[in-house]
Design goal:
With 111 residues, the protein is α+β, with helices and mostly antiparallel strands. It has one domain (6-101). It is 18% helix and 24% strand. The chain has two helices and five strands, in the order E-H-E-E-E-E-H. The protein has helices spanning 20-31, 87-94, and strands at residues 6-9, 38-43, 49-55, 60-66, 83-85. A five-stranded mixed sheet has the order 4-3-2-1-5. Helix 1 links the parallel strand 1 (6-9) and strand 2 (38-43). The termini are far apart. The mean pLDDT is 85.
Length: 111
């Protein structure tokens, strides 16, 4: 698989008609550069579609996902700086789970 060292969740909505070049321009404008082995996650305004731009060190990958019912659990603040995610949080987000609680730091110690 493709190595991913950093995952960034954008708070600002993205027009899902954007292709890889327009999405890359959005990443460069927001972050100053597209780092190798970094993934940049975007949603549309309704949060029922998602795009992930990934720079693997050689080129770009653009993946998209659409929910036919419901919407992705997104950050309540739709403006501001991007948020870093852990890989477990991205896996939860992609399937529609509340990603905020899916971290390696949330452990259960007592029953």
């Amino acid at each position: 698989m493709i190595r991913v060292d950093e995952i960034w969740l954008s708070r600002e909505p993205l027009d899902m008609r954007c292709g890889p070049d327009t999405t890359l321009a959005r990443v460069v404008n927001a972050f100053g550069e597209a780092k190798p082995h970094a993934a940049y996650v975007f949603a549309n305004k309704r949060a029922n579609r998602m795009k992930i731009l990934l720079h693997d060190g050689y080129g770009l990958w653009l993946a998209s996902r659409r929910l036919h019912q419901g919407k992705f659990i997104w950050t309540p603040l739709r403006q501001g700086d991007a948020i870093t995610l852990e890989s477990s949080q991205l896996r939860a987000l992609v399937v529609g789970l509340p990603w905020q609680y899916a971290t390696d730091h949330h452990t259960i110690k007592t029953l």
